[in-house]
Amino acid sequence: MTLEAIKAEARRAAFARRKAAQGRGLERAAQARLGEVLADHAGRPLAGYMPIRTEIDPLPVMAEAARKAPVAVPVIVAAGQPLSFRRWHPGAKMVSGPFGAMIPEAGDELVPEVLIVPLVAFDRAGNRLGYGGGFYDRTLAKLRAARPTVAIGFAYGAQEAEALPLEPTDEPLDAIVTEAGVLTF
């Protein structure tokens, strides 16, 4: 079986676990933990994300963070390119972006120092499996080459996998936050 086929199977299984976790009342506990983790980074530019499909929702935590520091959301520039980040605030006018994620209609570009990273699956070594476009891997590599950058995976505990198929270009996370706890690396 090819690496791509192994990743596709890992994604399929993780999507099913994530879908089963959604709507079970787990988000509030995860959001509270995420808020505690982000308190250690208060005042630093933050990038979150607009949840799509069955992704866990970081918006309440992002709204709280926006009271103290600039917050942005990712914008896909083009296939094979790192993400850019557009400033966001609660109530910002949003439009549909690539892959169905909402993005601010207008706003300054922001270079985050801390990122809340969506994922499909994670393992206890700080690895993540995304959607397969490599956007976050390229982005984290670029940001980390310029300065220290913290990547915090945000997920349901059900998204944990025993092991993940990895490539040399996969960027590790610094922490993973779920309703069950916080893993740091």
From TrEMBL:
InterPro entries the UniProt entry points to: FTHF_cligase, FTHF_cligase-like_sf, NagB/RpiA_transferase-like
Record: residues binding substrate: M50, E55
Assigned EC number: 6.3.3.2
Tree of life domain: Bacteria
Cofactor: Mg(2+)
Residues the record lists as binding ATP: R128, L129, G130, Y131, G132, G133, G134, F135, Y136
GO biological process, one term: tetrahydrofolate interconversion
Signal peptide coordinates: none
Catalytic activity as recorded in UniProt: (6S)-5-formyl-5,6,7,8-tetrahydrofolate + ATP = (6R)-5,10-methenyltetrahydrofolate + ADP + phosphate
Database matches in Pfam families: 5-FTHF_cyc-lig
Keyword terms: ATP-binding, Ligase, Magnesium, Metal-binding, Nucleotide-binding
GO molecular function term, any single one: metal ion binding
Membership in a protein family: Belongs to the 5-formyltetrahydrofolate cyclo-ligase family.
Name assigned to this protein: 5-formyltetrahydrofolate cyclo-ligase
Native species: Maritimibacter fusiformis
